[in-house]
Amino acid sequence: MGFRYALRSLRRTPAFTGAALLSLTLGIGANAAIFSVVNAVLLRPLEYANPERLVFVALGGRAVSPAMFLEWRARNRSFERMGAAEYWTPNFAARDRTEQVNALHLSSDVLPLLGVEPIVGRVFTDQEEHAGHDRVVVLGHALWKTRFGSDPNAVGQSMTLDGEPYTIVGVMPETFRFAPFWATKAQLWAPLPLDGRKADAGASLRVFARLQHDVTLARARAEMAALTAAVERERGRAEEPLTVAPLHEMVVGDVKPALLILLGATALVLLIACANVAHLQLVRGAGRERELAVRTALGASRGRVVRQLLTESAVLCCGGIAAGLAVADAGVRVIVAMAPPELPRIASVAIDARVLVVMLAMGACAGLIFGLAPAVKAAHVDVNESLKTGGRGSAEGDARNRLRGALVVSEFAMALMLLVSAVLIVKSFLGLLAIDAGFDPRNIIAMEVSVAGTKQAPPSRRAEFYRELAARTRSVPGVQAASAINHLPLVGDTWRFNFVVEGRPPVRPEDRPSATYRVVLPGYFETMRIQMLSGRDVTERDVRGAPCVVVINEFMARRQWPDQDAVGKRLATGNLEPPDWCTVVGVVRNVKQTTWSEPERSEMYFSYFQTLLYLENLRSFGMYMTLVARTSTDPAAAIAGIDRLVRTLEPAAVVSNATTMERAIGTQLVAPRFYMVLLGMFAAVAIVLAAIGIYGVISHSVARRTHEIGVRMALGAGGRAIVNLVIANGLRLAAVGSVLGCIGALLSTRYLRTLLFGVDPLDPATFVLVPLVLMMVAVFACWLPGRRASRVDPMVALRTD
């Protein structure tokens, strides 16, 4: 009965019902959409056995040397198993084509410690980890499906990777992903042979482990710290920072602050929506005083009146949840499409049972927030006073006005907090757009060209292949310049090598300065339009047998030779005795290396034709280079022509990761644009709701003061004075809300630091601009009812009192 009455009552006030449902739909839908992301990324456990016991172990960063890993694995007592992984991009030669696949070399402990069984076959054994054993591989489900037609008999078959035969021994489940925070696109896994590695091999391994049942994370950290310190003392090296972190923390660590900020923003939107609906309820309740008074006079108890009003709130909540579900579903689709690629597990975001439960809980809480106080207030009307025609100025009405004012103040305060955050994010994004990359990205295409497993792979042929490829690429129609580099800035890998400077006192290897290591062909700086500040580029004459040369960036030149000309100075990399000195022949502008917002760092460029690490290395990283070309037309149109050229030179070569530099820079801006758009949308909704709130309060106040306004106009007050009076009443509420909002923003914006670039979270200009904007919104929201009040006929107003 009460439910049907609530429906009839809400149908009689379509404007109120529509406004309330819209507010709730936006608030609940936005919260559900963001919570769906938080649920998938932060709350859902990793899809491994007992994932809470899986940890990541690192030393001085994320990578570990093979020697240190072997010491850890042999001597630790905290872990059931400990394994290592190394990134690998082999060329997979199939019947119809050769393609590059993302893969990992794994020690034999890694797959067992994850506790995920293959759906077909097995994982590799301890014996298969050793060099000289038959090569085996475990396939990912996607590769098994696309290249082997999901055939169970694929196990036992052979596949060719980098020109070598591998036997397929197993296939992992469709849901299996490893590693979850690094090399996330791996499609196959092969054993990691470590017994052939040199003791001083560089740090290239990521280490994973499973805690013993009776070992806590704190205990494991203490034991590993002591073990690492002992090993470092034995090796005569300085201690480096040790990391033993839950694997789930490594997955979500970089994005957790941003997602929690977005969740907090949507919570503010929901609170603003609740305040708006509560205010609408109060306005509606003021118009229903006679109705409620009559019901009370006819015997309805106050409890029954409260229950009836709460039933109406519940109906609104149900409608808000239903409509919010549709908004949330659309929001999830938009978020997944807009999300930055580094957002982990974004493809699994969906509205599941947990999200539905949270939506129901949000709806119930919202109903209590916006329904309880107005219901109690309406149930305590003075029956005698409400049945009189002159009860308009009662104390109860004054109390209700104070409550409505408090709600509007809270709306403005929360809207200001959101708008401050949004403006800071926008200023940060504009700062990112203004960054100089150090090169001209326009009309630049880049693609990795790998010769692994081809006739060009032997060291005697590799250099000549890339020299001819660069030369012939320059003759492709539309290409103005071409060269190659080992790792492309911003989208390629980043290696840092230690170096020593000639003439300086010797220091321990771990205390040496380091710089980003690049290997280039002649013409790279011209192709990328990286300005040569002094000296010269590497040339065709800088080959093996000629004096070693190196080009460094401006930051490295200033850091190592302040107030001197770096050209002519000498440095050496590696641990060779005696050092292999290389002469600095040029200094170039600083170029963004890894991320768009990173600070300047040292960088050195060596001639490809002099670099034995690339010319003679038989591992896959030494068998590819990234070709770069500058075109006079659309760069994407030249990709097909260059691809055909590569096939002409070597039909089995693999071209992969073709991109334009403008697209590469765009990927660097996806994440800040994503957060800017979402926060901006939430702030816009908050402003609209706050404006509706203050408009409603002022409109209702003007309607209740018609007699007073009539008297003022009868005594000579002009229309402008009436408008100013109404605006002043609204601005008092907005001013109080702005002050409270500024205080809240001062306390909350410090959590934005991880999302900001070049902007202080307490930026004075933002804290001045945003309140002014909101005050202008308040002026406009008050001007409309003020203008209507200024047109009141005094005689009509005095007669209607």
- Main β-sheet description: 12 strands, mixed
Determine Rg (CA atoms, Å).
34 Å
Cα shape = elongated
Distance between the termini: 37 Å
Number of helices: 24
Question: Domains counted in the coordinates: how many?
Answer: 4
Spans of at least 5 consecutive residues with low confidence? 389-396
Beta-strand content bin: 15-25%
**Average of the residue pLDDT scores:** 83
User: What oligomeric state do the depicted chains represent?
Assistant: single chain
Number of strands: 23
Characterise the protein shown here.
- The protein is α+β, with helices and mostly antiparallel strands and 801 residues long.
- The protein folds into 4 domains: 1-52 and 250-257 and 286-388, no CATH class; 62-240, no CATH class; 391-434 and 669-801, no CATH class; 452-652, no CATH class.
- Helix content is 49%, strand content 16%.
- It has 24 helices and 23 strands.
- The strands form 3 sheets. Strands 1, 2, 3, 4, 5, 6, 7, 8, 9, 10, 11 and 12 form a 12-stranded mixed beta sheet that branches.
- β8 (158-161) and β9 form a beta hairpin.
- The longest helix is centred in the middle third of the chain and has 39 residues, at 395-433.
- The radius of gyration is 34 Å and the shape is elongated.
- The two termini are 37 Å apart.
- The model is unreliable at 389-396 (pLDDT under 50).
